[in-house]
Structures are given as C-alpha cells and as structure tokens.
C-alpha cells in the first residue's frame, strides 16, 4: 500500500451496489485479506443480535434510502457489521477510522470488497483506513470520507447529509472548515498548539485555496450527526453552548445501553486483552493505577482487580472518588504512587494526566497506557522532546523509552487507545448495544429532521429499553411482566418505559 495521498477533490465513481469500485474509491492495506475479514464478520453477526434484529426490522422499509452517511469510527469487524446494516437500510456510506492504530485491515478489506465482490472487482463500500496511518494520512482519510462523488450529492454540494462520528473528528473538520471559510482565512500552521492541529490547518489551507466555500456547502447539506463517545459528546455540548454548532446532534454515548455497557463492560474486557497482547506480563500482585473512575475507569479497575492487581484510583470528582473508595479501591494522587506502581492507565478525557515528569519518576519497566479517546492524556509530546530519553520500538504499538539514568518505561500505542491499538477493541456483543443505538439514532435524525432543531439530544427511554430487550434472549434472560395493578401502582406502563429520564442505573 502506498502512502501517496491523491487530491481529495478528484472525482470518484458513485457508490452503487453491487457496482465495481474504482481504485480511487477506497484506500486500505490489502484487499487480499477480504476473505478472512468476511469470515470474522459472519462470526460477529451472530454475536450482535440487537443490531441484526434492527437490520431485519427495517430492511423492507428502507428508512435510510437517500442518506449519504460519512462514518468516522474505528474500522473493526464489529463496525463492518454496522456499515453493512446501514447499507441494508438504504444508505450510501463512506468510511474512515477515528484512530490511526485501530483499523483491522481484514475488516476494511472485506467492506471494500463487499459480500458480492472480489479483490479484483471490489463491490462494497468506500473505506479509507489502514492500521498505522500517519497524522497527515489520517486526516486525508477523514477528508475523503467527507468528499462525496460527483453526481450523487443532490443539493448538498459535495458532501454527506449525515455523519456518524466517534470522537468528533469528522464533525470538527466540517466546522473548522466552515469557520475559516467564513473568516476568509485559515490561521497560520505555526500557530497550532499540537502536531495534529497543524496537520488540520495545512489541510484547510489547501482546501480554502482551491474552493473557498467547500465546507460551508457541505455543512449546509448535513441533517445531523450521531456521536459515539464521551469525548466527542463533550465537543458537541461545547459548540452548542458557544452557538457554533451547525446541525443537530444525537448523543449516543449517554444512552444507557451504550455508556453503561460499552464503556464499562467493553473496557473491562479489552483493557486486559491489550495489556496482555502487548507485554504478556503477569498482572497479579502488581500495583495498577487507574486515572479516572467514570464508566470506563470502573471497567478498567474491575478488570485489573480481577487479575489480582492492587488497584489505586485517582480522581478529581469527589462523587467518583467516594464510589471508588466504597468499591474497595485505594484513592490517591498520582504523585503519591508514581514511583511505586507497575501499571498506569488513563481514562479521564482530560490532557496531561500523566506528564513527562511523572514518567521520569516511574519505576523501571513500568507500563503506561491510555484508554481515553485522544492521545493527550499522556504527555507523549513532552516525552519525545526530552533530551535524556531515547525510544526503542519493540513491536508494533509497543515502545520502550529509556532514560539516561538507566530506567525505562513501556508505552503502549504511543499513548493512544491501547485496547484498539494493541488488541481488537470491545467484543461484538457489547458493540451490538452501541451500534444498535447508532443505527436507531441515524434513522431518527434522518427521517425526523424537522423535529430536531440545532441542539444535542439523547434517544428517548423507550428506544434505550428496546435495545436492551433485543439482547436478552441471547443471554437466556427472561423478563418479569408487571400486572396492570402493579404498573398502576408504580405509575408506569406494563410495556415501559420503566424508569424516569433522570434515573441513574
């Protein structure tokens, strides 16, 4: 696979099923991996009962017919099932990953080839994703996923009419592009406060030079965005408060069947998987520090304790800190334990949680990893700038950083999501919950656009409960049914919803 980046403005043939995709309609690592990817997709479909039930329920109605969905979400086997569900419901789809390390190349190949295509004549969905992208490649892939082929744009003028986002990068690119077009100028690249933002500014400088209204047109054609994760939702609320949000958004993350399942149980599974694949060290008996005790941190702490680690939690929120203490964890500051702990995991959504000064104080061979969405929870930029440290790559996404004083630390996935960089992310069953919510949210926004003025919304409780119901049979779970008298006593319908919107599960 070449890393040469063709111009995003070049035309690509319209996506049609099962028309053959031209070479410029996709960029993945290796189409010969498609058969392997297709086998894993079939296995995942069995483990994703909720998402497959929604596919069957809406297949005839085609509620997403006419939808042009840009997806920016980890290109995994589970995401492949989501993509093919959106297509089965009538949507045209273009996809990029939301992380430079999270793509599973066989899954990306299978989606490009499609169930009816071959590596020689791919007939699937345009995907721009491969494991190990550079930052310029990553943002080019995002741009390409947002660049709709000539002739299929209707009145939108070159872009999607829906975004399915994870972390908010696709939404960010559209908003920054439109913002700078309105101002008539893009800030100088030298003004960027990070390497990644410099890449974004370079991209938008090129875009503004070739078409001064491109992103404005794209933004005007977007009906809405559905956002997958805590960090992306935070961005949406910030934009809405500032009055800069350009289209309505559904906060999928705060659906109970997403945050209380994907965030907790998914991380409980995938954190340990990532650490084990990366290092193969014995976790039992070691001291592990989990920074942040939200839903993600709770799952991480539980999994580490399950392996026999002595878990310490750091927190800024007194409620979460009290929860951690009541759950039996020591609650301390990082400075209290930085020289004693063996494993450090960030799960906060904040930046500089672990500074380069902290890493200089860690014990020899301490393992440092992040399971929050962005790579700035660990000060990797500061670590790289130090003159007293050298980096040695051990294997993909595992680096030893050696300090001149003789001690070294092991950093996983360059400070990015270790559960996807060093492992394969969350298991299919828990992702079925999240992606069922995403599909329902896409249908809701696309078919009821007039009911959603610009703002940030959550799905109604009855849809949350529907997603949960769709997964019970697979686990052999049976619900008790309220009598009419019991329901009246509780003030609910026998069919639900059973809890108020403010109920904390």
Automatic annotation (TrEMBL):
Binding site for NAD(+): 229-231, 263, 292-299, 315, 371-373, 419, 426
PROSITE patterns noted in UniProt: ADOHCYASE_1, ADOHCYASE_2
Pfam families linked to this entry: AdoHcyase, AdoHcyase_NAD
Superkingdom of the organism of origin: Bacteria
An annotated Gene Ontology molecular function: adenosylhomocysteinase activity
UniProt keyword list: Cytoplasm, Hydrolase, NAD, One-carbon metabolism
GO cellular component, as recorded: cytosol
Cofactor(s) of this protein: NAD(+)
Top-tier EC class: hydrolase
Residue numbers binding substrate: 76, 166, 228, 258, 262
Catalysed reactions, semicolon-separated: S-adenosyl-L-homocysteine + H2O = L-homocysteine + adenosine
EC id: 3.13.2.1
Record pathway: Amino-acid biosynthesis; L-homocysteine biosynthesis; L-homocysteine from S-adenosyl-L-homocysteine: step 1/1
GO biological process, one term: one-carbon metabolic process
Entry's localization field: Cytoplasm
Cofactor binding remark: Binds 1 NAD(+) per subunit.
SMART domains on file: AdoHcyase (SM00996), AdoHcyase_NAD (SM00997)
InterPro entries documented for this protein: Adenosylhomocyst_ase-like_sf, Adenosylhomocysteinase-like, Ado_hCys_hydrolase_NAD-bd, NAD(P)-bd_dom_sf, S-Ado-L-homoCys_hydrolase_CS
All copies of domain S-adenosyl-L-homocysteine hydrolase NAD binding, residue ranges: 263-425
Family designation: Belongs to the adenosylhomocysteinase family.
Purpose: May play a key role in the regulation of the intracellular concentration of adenosylhomocysteine.
Entry protein name: Adenosylhomocysteinase
Biological source species: Micromonospora marina
Gene that this polypeptide is encoded by: ahcY
């Amino acid at each position: 696979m070449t890393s040469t980046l063709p111009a995003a403005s070049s035309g690509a043939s319209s996506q049609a099923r099962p028309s053959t995709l031209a070479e410029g309609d996709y960029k993945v690592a290796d189409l010969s991996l498609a058969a392997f990817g297709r086998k894993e997709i079939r296995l995942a479909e069995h483990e994703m009962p909720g998402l497959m039930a929604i596919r069957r329920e809406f297949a005839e109605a085609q509620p997403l017919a006419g939808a042009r969905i840009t997806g920016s979400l980890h290109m995994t086997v589970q995401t492949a099932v989501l993509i093919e569900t959106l297509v089965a419901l009538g949507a045209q789809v273009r996809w990029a990953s939301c992380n430079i390390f999270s793509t599973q190349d066989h899954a990306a190949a299978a989606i490009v080839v499609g169930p009816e295509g071959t590596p020689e004549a791919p007939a699937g969905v345009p995907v721009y994703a491969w494991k190990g992208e550079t930052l310029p490649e990553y943002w080019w892939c995002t741009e390409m996923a947002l660049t709709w082929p000539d002739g299929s744009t209707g009145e939108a003028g070159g872009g999607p009419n829906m975004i399915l986002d994870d972390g908010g990068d696709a939404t960010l690119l559209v908003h920054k592009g439109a913002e700078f077009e309105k101002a008539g100028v893009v800030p100088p690249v030298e003004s960027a406060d990070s390497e990644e933002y410099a890449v974004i500014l370079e991209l938008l400088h090129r875009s503004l030079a070739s078409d001064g209204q491109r992103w404005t047109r794209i933004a005007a054609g977007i009906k809405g965005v559905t956002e997958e994760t805590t960090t992306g939702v935070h961005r949406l609320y910030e934009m809405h408060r500032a009055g800069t949000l350009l289209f309505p958004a559904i906060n999928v993350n705060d659906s109970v069947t997403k945050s209380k399942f994907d965030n907790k149980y998914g991380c409980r599974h995938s954190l340990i998987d990532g650490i084990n694949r990366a290092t193969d060290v014995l976790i039992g008996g070691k001291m592990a520090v989990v920074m942040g005790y939200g839903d993600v941190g709770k799952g991480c702490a539980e999994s580490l304790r399950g392996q026999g680690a002595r878990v310490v939690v750091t927190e800024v929120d007194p409620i979460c800190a009290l929860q951690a203490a009541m759950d039996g964890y020591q609650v301390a500051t990082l400075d209290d334990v930085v020289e004693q702990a063996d494993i450090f995991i960030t799960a906060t959504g904040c930046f500089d949680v672990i500074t380069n000064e902290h890493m200089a104080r860690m014990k020899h061979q301490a393992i440092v990893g992040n399971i929050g969405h962005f790579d700035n929870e660990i000060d990797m930029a500061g670590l790289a700038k130090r003159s007293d440290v050298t980096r040695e790559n051990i294997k993909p996404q595992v680096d030893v950083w050696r300090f001149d004083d003789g001690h070294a630390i092991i950093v996983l996935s360059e400070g990015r999501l270790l559960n996807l960089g060093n492992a394969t992310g969350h298991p299919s069953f828990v992702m079925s919950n999240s992606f069922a919510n995403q599909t329902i949210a896409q249908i809701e926004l696309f078919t009821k656009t007039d009911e959603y003025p610009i703002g940030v919304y959550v799905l109604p409780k009855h849809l949350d409960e529907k997603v949960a119901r769709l997964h019970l049979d697979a686990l052999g779970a049976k619900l008790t049914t309220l009598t009419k008298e019991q329901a009246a006593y509780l003030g609910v319908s026998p069919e639900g919803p059973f809890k108020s919107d403010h109920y904390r599960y």
